[in-house]
UniProtKB/TrEMBL annotation:
The keyword Hydrolase does not apply. Signal peptide: none annotated. It comes from the Bacteria. NCBIfam families: murJ_mviN. It is a multi-pass membrane protein. This is Peptidoglycan lipid II flippase. PANTHER family: LIPID II FLIPPASE MURJ. The chain crosses the membrane at residues 20-40, 52-75, 87-112, 124-145, 157-176, 196-217, 238-259, 279-300, 321-343, 355-377, 389-413, 419-445, 457-482, 494-518. It comes from Microbacterium foliorum.
Length: 537
């Protein structure tokens, strides 16, 4: 448990810094381009294309397949060095091919992700996509290096590297504003010089994020060199397993494109893709800091126990990790829900935009608890080299995502749903789909290995919810004491950030106090992990 705590602390610290700088990046971008803006939405669409491929590579192949295979390969005499060299060589070749194909297909990809009613937005997004799509190569290299470092229990660099990308992006966005003054929000008013600077800055940041990981490669003790002798290296197993995860990730990307195309219908006038992306960024902050920092070391441990056939230890890992994750995540849900308006104000130019952005954040927040549990459940399937089952419950989720987005579009077209709530309706559909997916995944994992100790999870969740409800109410009370809708927390982005912190502190204090009164056993585990952040630890 001690090693898991140290690893979690390193990952959490790096993730926190990278996410905070990522928030600053988004704040600067909103300051330059706006949030309800055609130009901002065009950049969001273009920059999400390489991100989608990164998810395809990282979540769809590396996390699902490569990490468990590397864990097994470390038992070989060379520590997996030969396998890793072959994997890297093959990976870079595949990345180059994928990047070239994506560049050729850029107009079609943008068309899939935008509404045909927004031709000016589509033209700017296509131009930006040509600058952003080379990120696919660098995202892939970053994922290959980082996931291998994680598998070798070198957890820090992978989570700290994005800080470099964020710093470069912030500098580039500020330079864009300084050089071109009042940057237009209308897509048709953009010049090639503006496009090149915005897209080029985004890609430069990702390139440096990837290359900095090479500095830490020496810690693995492995040599890395080109090796094109792929036959007989065991990559056939990787390919067989990756087939299902690739299909799964492609389904997720297609569903995401469909959601974006629905949301861009109201681009430039109401909350659209940029507002959704910023709300997702806030939503992902607790997920990244809590779930990835604690869950990633657990995943490596689960993979080791599964590879050794120690199913009882796997079940114990699942129960322990979920209870620990849920302890933190429910506190985060209560805090973000109470501070939804000030938190949304951070990423908007005006109070009116804030009231459009907050419902989107709340809609996403509904799915945070299910996604937290899904993180462990889905990766347990991966640890047993089962990628087919996650494919089917992800297809189920994607079907619901598309169905709910279609329903939102229909209600908007029929004038039942206001344009200002279209993005929130799409986000709510995402949360509903994720909840149903998680329930199905738990049932399937229970059938596979049994003994998941679900009763203990539910007891813990109930205890945490019992503390979170009054804690969230206390946070909302603090917001009202600071003036509520007419208070100082909504007057500027800086005040919004400060108000969010105050509300969050109040929620966490009440939450911990109630759990202490209930003598929740998870408090001891949480305290042990948090002490890892103290100086000298």
């Amino acid at each position: 448990m001690s090693s898991l705590g140290r690893a979690s602390a390193v990952i959490a610290a790096g993730t926190m810094v990278s996410r905070v700088t990522g928030l600053l990046r988004s704040i600067v971008l909103v300051g330059v381009l706006g949030s309800i803006s055609q130009a901002a939405d065009a950049f969001t669409v273009a920059n999400q294309l390489p991100n989608s491929v990164f998810q395809l590579i990282s979540v769809g192949v590396l996390t699902a397949v490569i990490v468990p295979q590397i864990v097994k390969a470390t038992a070989k005499p060379d520590g997996g060095g030969a396998f890793i060299s072959k994997m890297f060589t093959l990976g870079v070749v595949v990345l180059l091919v994928c990047t070239a194909i994506a560049m050729i297909a850029a107009p079609g990809l943008v068309a899939l992700a935008t509404s045909d009613k927004q031709q000016e937005l589509r033209a700017l997004a296509t131009a930006l996509a040509y600058w952003c799509l080379p990120q696919i190569l660098f995202y892939g290299i970053y994922a290959l290096l980082g996931e291998t470092l994680n598998a070798r229990r070198i957890f820090g660099p992978f989570t700290w590297a994005p800080v470099i990308n964020n710093v470069v992006s912030i500098a580039g966005f500020l330079a864009l504003g300084a050089l071109f003054g009042n940057v237009p929000t209308r897509a048709a008013a953009w010049t090639p010089e503006m496009t090149a600077m915005l897209g080029g800055t985004a890609t430069l940041g990702i390139m440096l994020q990837a290359l900095v990981l090479l500095v830490f490669w020496r810690r693995t003790g492995l040599s890395l060199r080109p090796d094109f002798r792929w036959r007989g290296a065991g990559l056939g197993t990787v390919g067989r397993l990756a087939g299902w995860t690739l299909l799964m990730a492609l389904a997720g990307i297609a569903a995401g494109f469909f959601q974006t195309s629905i949301a861009t219908t109201v681009s430039g006038t109401d909350a659209s893709t940029t507002v959704m992306a910023n709300a997702w960024l806030v939503f992902m902050l607790p997920y990244s800091v809590i779930v990835l920092s604690i869950g990633t070391p657990y995943f490596t441990q689960i993979s080791e126990h599964a590879a050794a056939g120690r199913d009882d230890e796997v079940r114990a890992d699942i129960s322990r990790s979920i209870r620990t994750l849920v302890f933190f995540i429910i506190a985060a849900i209560a805090a973000v829900a109470a501070a939804a308006l000030p938190a949304s104000r951070v990423f908007t130019r005006s109070i009116d935009e804030t009231f459009q952005a907050a419902p989107v954040l709340i809609a996403y927040l509904i799915g945070l608890l299910p996604l937290t549990i899904l993180f462990i459940v889905q990766r347990t399937f991966y640890a047993y080299d089962d990628t087919r089952t996650p494919f089917w419950f992800t297809i189920f989720q994607c079907t619901l995502v598309v169905g709910t987005a279609l329903l939102a579009s229909f209600l908007y077209t029929a004038d039942v749903l206001p344009a200002s709530l279209l993005a929130a309706a799409v986000a709510l559909g995402q949360s509903i789909a994720s909840t149903a997916q998680t329930l199905l995944a738990i049932w399937l994992l229970h059938r596979k290995i049994g003994g998941l100790q679900i009763a203990s999870w539910m007891l813990s969740i109930g205890r945490f919810a019992l503390a979170a409800i009054p804690a969230g109410a206390a946070g909302w009370g603090v917001f009202l004491l600071m003036g509520g809708d007419d208070g100082w927390t909504l007057r500027s982005q800086l005040f919004g950030a400060l108000g969010t912190c105050i509300i969050g502190i109040a929620v966490v204090a009440v939450y911990i106090g109630i759990l202490a009164l209930l003598r929740a056993p998870e408090l001891k585990v949480a305290g042990s992990m948090l002490r890892r952040f103290l100086p000298g630890r």
